[in-house]
Amino acid sequence: MDDETATPREIHLLTVDALLADLVGGRAVALGGGEELALASDDARAVLDWYRRNRGRWQSNLSAGDTDAIIDAIGTPPPTIEAEPEAGNAHAVRLLRLVKVEAHRFAGLHAYGRPNVPPTSFVFEPRKPVLLLEGGNGSGKTSIANAIIWCLTGHLIRSQRPPEEGPLDFACEIARDDGTNTTHAMSAITPLPPKSAELPPGGEPIPADNWVELTFADAIGALLPPLRRTQGRTARGKITETAPDLDAVGIDPIAWRIATTMPALLPFLSVGSASQLGEAVARLTGLAELVDLARHAQKMSVRVTKTATPEIEKQRVDIAGRYQQAVGDLTAIVVETPTIAFGGTAPTVDEENSADRITEIAGHFADLKAKALSEARDVLGDGFDPESKQSRDDLEGSIAPAIERLRTVGELPSIARLSALKVDAAEIATVVALLMRVEAEAATLAQLAVRSRSSPPRPALR
């Protein structure tokens, strides 16, 4: 904890944001009964901080990008986060009134029509504070309620089973006018097409083109932004669904479930076991989002253990092999050129502080390079500028060919002839004596030349 004298805050008094801020910041949270929750590991706090910054991922499917991001978070220092103020238990109550329901190709409210010619949109505008729907079986009472519930929650109410999600396909078998039967995948909210409908060939899904839009008014009658949920299919036939922006009307998503799917779950409660209703009620505390976090984290743990860890180990072995090969190449170069040797030995890939040691060795060669470039100017003249990248690149590009030429200098004809010459000591002495004699005679000639220039000319003979 940041302050060892501080009293851990009670978990039931914290919002999710405040709870995560305390745990990531290294502060304990009181669970009741004298128990406390704290994350002692910096790695755990760093991973939880990733979840804190990516709350939109808690209910999403696992992805390779999320896996890599969480793995990268391990080993990084967790941030310092100040404690958020306690939210307390006071919540403002907001009442909304449904003023309009508009549905497009929704099962129970529409006939299917034709794929490219949908039926007229269903429009229903309640006028009274209390609404009573009356009608015979199959008249559409439940369908109106389901249109509202599906738009708000993505679920459908069923009479003999718990509420189910809307973006689900089921196999629909249609008896055609020609006497054949075809089977198609069809969305649960798509109206059942007649046998004479212009449908795709057997085995292909029935197009999904469905939406419901709800309009609410606040306590003073001001209309709020419409809420629309849509359903369609991708080019490969997979159902896609776009949820409404519930934040636009300022109501927590759990508020919609209190009067919709939660009552429908009551007949299916099983005492002593987890239930959708129990989870929904838990969300009223404001902390049940952590259930989504825990599920995502648990799935991520399995993925990292079974998939990411073996893949990382494979990469580690490959990197270690390439590193060792580079060390071997460097050692061979140092043996060939001892003047560039560095102190000590190259570290192993898994040696503690190996990164610091590699940085130290790299600095050694950087210093040698800087010194060599400075000395190169003494050889190449003032035209070579060590500070110029182009000059350095030109020099480095010329070094390798020059070294290669020096390695083959012995193959030149002149060098071969010189190498073939064989003389002994007597012959060397004779050559030296001849050279000394030539040198003495040259000196005599030089003296005669000087005298001839200084002597007066002789008279000519007649």
TrEMBL record:
GO terms for biological process: double-strand break repair. It comes from the Bacteria. Residues 123-174 form the Rad50/SbcC-type AAA domain. It holds the Pfam family AAA_23. Transmembrane segments: none annotated. One of its GO terms (molecular function) is ATP hydrolysis activity. InterPro entries: P-loop_NTPase, Rad50/SbcC_AAA. This is AAA domain-containing protein.
